[in-house]
């Protein structure tokens, strides 16, 4: 394969981020194929044509099904709102296209399972955009853990908090409507920290959750996507979510998410405690980690700040000098590298649909736990 | 009253800290009475006499009941292991002495209630050594909240993690035995963050907890206080504890404690989120807080680091210049100031036995929740 | 102009960084012209052809003069070692090409002046790669200063310290030889902090400097670019440089640079003090700044951490959400945007050759000051 | 000696701090003698008597000469304004009393030398209150350096910046008058960072300085100590001072002080670079240091935050648990411990008058350098 031809559905926030990565990735990493930005789909032809020009794609369509079935598309890249992921992915799978989808994969675990099984049966490649695990620092954390440098993991505390809905005057949007978004901050940002916990610690077995909608209704703008004509619409999902979890390897932990966490802009954080050390990370300082190991002399121990550099995973391709710093979009560049390598070399990709289905199972378990006020075993969720 | 005469029981870690505060407090704060270090009690007369000299007290006794009943003692200061608090406090109350006790107040809520009711009935003054709420920064946080500067509280995430038992070779001690210590890290350090949450946010209504003993047995030293002759003793309480809580004002939160948290030395931390701002605090940097308020212009918002200074509560007595920094023992000096003022001016003191009883109720609720796998209302606990 | 055709000389560290920016820039910013990576030059044809494939350029040459004189090149991009900048730039100017050059512009102020005057006479556009001023955070700092938010500047303390030569076993290279590199860390990294000081505070009038070569000789590798056959070569320029400066607006300051500063990886830092506030920045955390303003209530003052976001200069093009973080290469993307806009809209670009010449004057003044042990006025330097 | 009898002159800011230390020190450290707060002197008898009560001393005098000559005083403790240090110290020395003096020792090096020689001739003990070197963290830094853990020192960058005079409306005071205070921020706070540099790195050989008075006049309050009747008085010494220094061991460095540094409350900071590592310290976080050593594996290197604990110098006496934090006054407690031990065990104390004289020499060199625009060798200063 010389070219990997991309069909992008949706050109909003994430569509633009994907496009930056498609364009920059070949200049950063040596790749097995070139990336051809072949076609994009938007909600109508006019917008699609405008975006083709802006984003530097070859062709435009106002109908995503046209894109999915186009013979010159190798990968369908789904950057649409959550509720559309399932239909688009199943259509792409049916058309034999590899699928690169934004997260969360589906509105619930049942749908995610259906998508996963369809993809596996069709033998196509899938990758889901949990981009924070692509950060070279996250990869370094995994390397440290796998080397046993902090011993056996006994605790994980993770958050993904932001404040983009902290202002009660921020109007209603599709993200607040259950049938369009599924759960609230739980699925939106919580899914990232769940995925990170699974990446770094392993399977989650049991969940006990608490959810809360703090701002119970929001102003409905006239151009809202809903049919409701009232001035205010009811917020149908959670603003704050936290859960206690038990991992299959015996570790326990807490996971927390909020979309009303004043002051937090990119509050994906974690502290991982092992029997021999600990790691602390904050995505707002995404190019560094704090590492404590009790193998240092006892009077010289402390958390050390490691700045990511060329001796760490995937950094050298960006810059040969240490500590120069990577950004949000660079994570997507690594993700796109994984996409191209995974498809061209027929290598496993992670997180694929199955891994994303595991996230959806935790989300469903959390909602069920909240409803029933008890621990939910993941095995109770389909 | 010209002199407040102290009777100190126990001269270990906390006994020494109390003594530093007794000696320094009059040089820091103007007080309504002088502090007389009148008598101390230790486990035997020899040790007591040695300690009288070391600590600068007037008299020594090897029998704490002698101290409690001495006519020249105004305040009984209990710095003994947890399981002795109840008996000593009840004796002191019976003798009409004011009581200054280390925390947690009792091994369980039933005992704490008995102690509280006895004290209240006797009309004596009580103060419990949850010293972290005496930090001028904690007082400043309370002032900020009460002023409404961060709006209504919606979330509290607190930890009190240390690593003093992270090493599996650290031997067995009384703290690991249920009948001597009660719960493990939950009561030892968890009680501090529970007390802090109650101080800053208000009453806790419901608790859902998870507990875990990671290091299941430890070497029994020959001079151990237990009668067990085996080489290893079973650890009888929790190494790691976390809980989800619901406050009576509608806020939710998570509280966490660990005594095996590698790298954490004084890991009492909290993040308080309100509808208009947020506060972040870390006791390892005890003289500063992070404050975010959304009343700053939107493109100039950020967490600001406020260094405690003379414009904040209780700092000016220590130093007239800002940012010079207070230490752990300074918190005890504030606590002793409260003790002297509370008794001499007959003012309320906080946290008194009743406030400490509220902590014990949360501890019991957490243990019951863990056992039964469900939310426990505080009203279910006596 | 529809296309801006780039001719890149040099494909090492900086050449790669420029290429990433050329490829990503159009996906980040809407541009007045597309960027065509037309031709690259390397030291021989074989390497050039290999690099053309790697970097995604159209044509290759082993002779940079061919590139400079090619009719299909609009911009000559100079990423070669310092000593070649002058000859290449003068040739490009003579051929009527716009010039985008890495820093420092020249080995000394005399050369820089000649290059500047040639460019201005020819009416071509120039831009020099002092990329740290392109960081949206640096632009925000400038905005804050220009708004008067910190009052009049009274002090600037800047550093650019790294440790890439801290290990005495790191071998000799062209950077350590005066005729190839000019001064040492002074010109290499010191030029960045000088440029930053001029950008943020204004002209420097007087300089007093101290320089030191700590590691006086280094192992000469057999493939070294020098003709010397001895095993060790003498280091001919400074490892550590610091200077006191006086700005034309009355502020004073210190500037420091080191290439042997153990632990510093990207130690470009500054603290700017004004009559009403202060700003602190550290390039190792390139997406945030610390701002103190004395207009906050006196008991709520503190340095606040502002995370760069869409309300700040140039960030929104990268990401619509705050605090997601930019990286080193993103600065070059902004720089390339300035290049394209400057040329296509015939707008001024900064730092152009004249601004870079001002940096070279400070470098020369520092060396003269060290030699003569006295303050040097910039007016003493040609 | 069973008792060390203190005579305190001056009960302002520093007098109170000394008193806290006198009272707390015996409860923190086992001492060779008890400390008797015997007599204090204030500007008149009324104030002295009020202060005796407040501070818990035995006797009062309105005439410091009475105190100096009292037979029941062992140590004269000088906490008066700078210009009085010399007269008081010489009188105390003449009376055969040990002297504990606040810093800077004298208004100039000539006076400091006279005081030093008088003390040495009389064989009395002296200690000067450069308390920041008593911080256990500073002692730990010295230990790390002396162990060779960061190799040979090549660079020291130190600051002592505060903002207590940043507001131009802050009125005139004796600190701004040359005959009462000597130099400005240079001697006031700069003396601390000079002393710290000498403590940690060694002798300073050469100095090149720049000084600046930014706020040239200030409002004269009616109760001002000067005789001037104008509304505004001219500020006679420096607001900002910085210098480049060369140490006798070959290291170079920069030292900086400001009393108008907006946002800095206790900005004594330093970064020490060695051939094998580096140390960073900030007095605003006085209980921690950052240590980088290049003996860590290259892909695990980073500055580690060491929290001071019982394995480090002098901490265990304050608290047996790590990371609980020391405060400003605790440094004075260590200083007083040194005073008592030095006198009672006839051990050397540091910094004594001779060490403080070395600070005064650097201060004079800095002023001369500024005046003459050239490097000044310390040997040029008497």
UniProtKB/TrEMBL annotation, chains A, B, C, D:
Coiled coil: none annotated. SUPFAM superfamilies: Glyceraldehyde-3-phosphate dehydrogenase-like, C-terminal domain, NAD(P)-binding Rossmann-fold domains. Keywords: Oxidoreductase. InterPro entries: Gfo/Idh/MocA-like_OxRdtase_N, Gfo/Idh/MocA_oxidrdct_glycsds, GFO_IDH_MocA-like_dom, NAD(P)-bd_dom_sf. Residues 139-279 form the GFO/IDH/MocA-like oxidoreductase domain. Residues 4-130 form the Gfo/Idh/MocA-like oxidoreductase N-terminal domain. The keyword Cell inner membrane does not apply. It holds the Pfam family GFO_IDH_MocA. GO terms for molecular function: nucleotide binding; oxidoreductase activity. This is Gfo/Idh/MocA family oxidoreductase. The lineage of its organism: Bacteria, Pseudomonadati, Pseudomonadota, Gammaproteobacteria, Oceanospirillales.
């Amino acid at each position: 394969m010389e070219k990997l031809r991309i069909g992008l559905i949706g050109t909003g926030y994430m569509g633009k981020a994907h496009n930056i990565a498609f364009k920059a990735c070949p200049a950063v990493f040596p790749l097995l194929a070139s990336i051809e930005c072949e076609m994009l789909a938007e909600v109508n032809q006019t917008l699609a044509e405008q975006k083709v020009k802006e984003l530097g794609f070859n062709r435009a369509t106002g109908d995503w099904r046209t894109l999915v079935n186009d013979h010159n598309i190798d990968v369908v890249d789904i950057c649409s709102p959550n509720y559309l992921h399932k239909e688009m992915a199943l259509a792409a799978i049916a058309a034999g296209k590899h699928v690169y989808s934004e997260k969360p994969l589906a509105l619930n675990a049942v749908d995610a399972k259906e998508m996963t099984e369809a993809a596996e049966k069709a033998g196509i490649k899938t990758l889901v955009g949990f981009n924070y695990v692509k950060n070279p620092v996250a990869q370094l954390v995994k390397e440290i853990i796998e080397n046993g440098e902090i011993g056996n993991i006994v605790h994980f505390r993770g958050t993904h908090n932001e404040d983009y809905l902290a202002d009660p005057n921020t109007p209603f949007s599709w993200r607040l409507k259950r049938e369009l978004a599924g759960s609230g901050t739980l699925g939106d940002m919580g899914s990232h920290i769940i995925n990170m916990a699974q990446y770094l610690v392993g399977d989650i077995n049991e969940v006990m959750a608490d959810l809360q909608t703090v701002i119970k209704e929001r102003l409905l703008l006239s151009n809202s996507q809903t049919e409701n004509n009232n001035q205010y619409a009811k917020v149908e999902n959670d603003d704050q979510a936290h859960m206690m979890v038990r991992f299959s390897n015996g570790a326990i932990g807490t996971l927390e998410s909020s979309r009303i966490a004043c002051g937090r802009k990119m509050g994906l954080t974690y502290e991982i405690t092992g029997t021999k050390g600990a790691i602390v990370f904050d995505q707002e300082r995404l190019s560094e980690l704090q590492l404590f190991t009790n193998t240092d002399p006892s009077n010289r121990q402390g958390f050390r700040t490691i700045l990511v550099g060329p001796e760490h995973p995937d950094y050298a391709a960006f810059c040969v000098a240490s500590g120069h710093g990577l950004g949000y979009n660079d994570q997507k560049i690594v993700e796109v590298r994984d996409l191209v390598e995974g498809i061209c070399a027929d290598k496993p990709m992670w997180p694929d649909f199955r891994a994303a289905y595991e996230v959806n199972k935790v989300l469903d378990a959390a909602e069920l736990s909240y409803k029933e006020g008890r621990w939910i075993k993941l095995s109770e969720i389909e």
